[in-house]
Amino acid sequence: MNPTVTLSIAGSDPSGGAGIQADLKTFAALGVYGTAALAGLTVQNTQGVLDARPVEPEFVRAQVTAVLDDLPVAATKLGMLSNAAVASAVADLLEERREDFGVVVLDPVMVATSGDRLLDDDATSVVRGRLMRLADIITPNVPEAAVLLGGAPATDEKGIIAQARGLVAAGARAALVKGGHLTDTTLTDAFAHGDQIAILTGPRIATRNTHGTGCTLSSAIAAFAALRGDTTASGVSLEAVEQARDYLMRALESGSSWQLSRTPGSGHGPVDHAVDQREG
């Protein structure tokens, strides 16, 4: 029996909490075979992003092609794509070989948990104008959804519902708008697919260790969609999204008291991607 194959096209995080490193940890934890193509390099840790450099677009394309030519990818997660040239190269390849990518989960990484900007305006235009329409689901947080829609950030549940519906109206097949930036005691996300809307809630976990939560959630959605047999024909199921949220909540809770940094009172630590192995 062969394992289910998933692919991440994203940037790196040498501290291991976000980016490709978080994606591969999530894939392994959830039982899929993870592959990865680096689209950008960062110098970062739990305290913030110190530097970031893109990978040559043709080299990104060559990495992805090497995977697609050899392995049957069931789902792909798109993360930090660095600049317009890299984002365009990925969009070109998606248009040429859409079925080879399986279900596509687009995490429009624009700003790190620390507040550092990770995507320039030109690249944002490619995400909005091309990649959003090629993906099966887009998973922005409130500020990212506001950028994509050209409006003000949502401040409540009604606002994130409007953002999710707005992204679908703008061309997204489905949208999960994450309400982590809201201040309610309950964590609320809005999932829109066609005319349907689902409100997903859960407890808000009090912790500084939220580095890489967006990367972890989007790669978990890709993993569960692949394991459930979601396809480009069916799109990403609500059940895959719910399973991914549940995994992230458990990872957040398990890692909530970690103090990995030499200065744990500042910055943002990672979640516990191996929560299920520790609990087992």
UniProtKB/TrEMBL annotation:
Biased composition (Basic and acidic residues): 270-280
Protein name: Bifunctional hydroxymethylpyrimidine kinase/phosphomethylpyrimidine kinase
Any one GO CC term of the record: cytosol
Chain's role: Catalyzes the phosphorylation of hydroxymethylpyrimidine phosphate (HMP-P) to HMP-PP, and of HMP to HMP-P.
Residue numbers spanned by region Disordered: 258-280
SUPFAM superfamilies found in the cross-reference section: Ribokinase-like
Presence of the UniProt keyword ATP-binding in the record: yes
Organism lineage: Bacteria, Bacillati, Actinomycetota, Actinomycetes, Propionibacteriales
Matching InterPro entries: HMP/HMP-P_kinase_dom, PM/HMP-P_kinase-1, Ribokinase-like
PANTHER family: HYDROXYMETHYLPYRIMIDINE_PHOSPHOMETHYLPYRIMIDINE KINASE THI20-RELATED, PHOSPHOMETHYLPYRIMIDINE KINASE
Catalytic activity, as annotated: 4-amino-5-hydroxymethyl-2-methylpyrimidine + ATP = 4-amino-2-methyl-5-(phosphooxymethyl)pyrimidine + ADP + H(+); 4-amino-2-methyl-5-(phosphooxymethyl)pyrimidine + ATP = 4-amino-2-methyl-5-(diphosphooxymethyl)pyrimidine + ADP
Top-level lineage group: Bacteria
The UniProt record lists the keyword Transferase: yes
A Pfam family of this chain: Phos_pyr_kin
GO biological process, alphabetically ordered: thiamine biosynthetic process; thiamine diphosphate biosynthetic process
Keywords recorded for this protein, A-Z: ATP-binding, Kinase, Nucleotide-binding, Thiamine biosynthesis, Transferase
Pathway(s) the chain acts in: Cofactor biosynthesis; thiamine diphosphate biosynthesis; 4-amino-2-methyl-5-diphosphomethylpyrimidine from 5-amino-1-(5-phospho-D-ribosyl)imidazole: step 3/3
GO MF entries: ATP binding; hydroxymethylpyrimidine kinase activity; phosphomethylpyrimidine kinase activity
